[in-house]
Amino acid sequence: MNKLKYISLIFLLIISSCAPSNNNFSIKKSPFSGGVYKIGKPYQIEDKIFYPKESFNYLESGVASWYGPNFDGKKTANGEIFNMNLLTAAHKTLQLPSMVKVTNIENNRSLILRVNDRGPFVKNRIIDVSKRAASILGFQKDGTANVIVEYYGRAKIYDEEGKIIKQKNKAGKEKDKRSFYIRIGLFSKINNVEKIKSQLINFGKIEINKNQSGYKVLLGPFASKSYVERVLSNLKEKGFKDAIIENIN
Hints:
Barwin-like endoglucanases, 4 helices, 33% strand
């Protein structure tokens, strides 16, 4: 009987030593704490004005670059802290934060990234990704790559304590004053879109919206109807006979 009690005591001691201690238990804080949902006002970099807006059907192809050491530890455009080893990105106009899918068309690697910063402001580049993202996508060494960027979904927002902030549906509440676009056409394949992009680049910002029918190519936004009519006239002279004006609002 004494032997049985001794064995039971040893067993209880082993179990208690394996139990987790409340003193050592902690919840890891989100690395994206302290940020806010932000669209932002139009802003100017050198001689170009950018118009941030909510875009839930965004899709664009172009050149991606990456950024890291010079910005590591600094605040992003929406108040989060940039960490070059996290999977994040910077975009000139998308709502912050948001999630995008970036595909390197040179090696077919894809990655879901959190957009929480503004940039890049180098000609012809459409997105800046973190050093870690560039490494996974396979272009850290080269510095740039041809990619397709597609809106993937909303991103969670965390307060200073790392708790998730419940978001209100803000879609449609902020109107873009520059609401005039030119619809170039609807294309079934992204390769066809790539062929005409070089012909359109001098006419304004190119926007590609993906839907069930294909890839809708828009040019704009433009400030006034009179101006967009002049651009449309020039486009038709260049051979874009099917181009039409669309008022998004």
